[in-house]
Design goal:
By secondary structure, the chain is mainly alpha-helical. The protein has 5 helices and no strands. The chain has helices spanning 3-31, 37-55, 60-74, 77-89, 93-119. It is globular. The model has no long low-confidence stretch (mean pLDDT 97).
């Protein structure tokens, strides 16, 4: 991996993190904080976009930059688990379970749809 690729990966990672923060913030302002809809939104959107990239046949350095840099920092496994843990600690185990299972199902559906759409490009 070249130095330029590493710099691009870092820049895209920073952009993805900022985009995640802004998306979660905007969604939370609209939906409230009773359920982590913002985290769900970024993770499902990221899965859809990754599916588009894979379906369109993006590979190599371009895939590394977009999937590993941009989407890797836009989506967030740790926040998803922290949100789920927080719901459980608030004595809302059903909401925690819904967050885990809806995120998994929606993410899988999104990547499948993204691959199909990407294959049309």
């Amino acid at each position: 991996m070249t130095a330029l690729t590493i710099l691009a990966l870092a820049a895209l990672g920073g952009a993805g993190a900022v985009a995640r923060h802004l998306t979660v913030f905007v969604v939370a302002e609209r939906t409230g904080d009773q359920f982590p809809v913002g985290t769900l939104t970024v993770n499902v959107a990221g899965s859809l976009i990754l599916g588009l990239l894979l379906g369109a046949g993006v590979t190599g350095t371009t895939l590394t930059l977009l999937a590993g840099g941009l989407l890797g920092s836009y989506t967030t496994y740790s926040a998803w688990m922290a949100d789920s843990d927080g719901l459980a600690r608030e004595h809302r185990p059903q909401a925690a379970a819904v967050n885990i299972f809806v995120s998994l199902f929606a993410g899988l559906v999104a990547i499948v749809i993204g691959r199909a759409l990407g294959g049309l490009l």
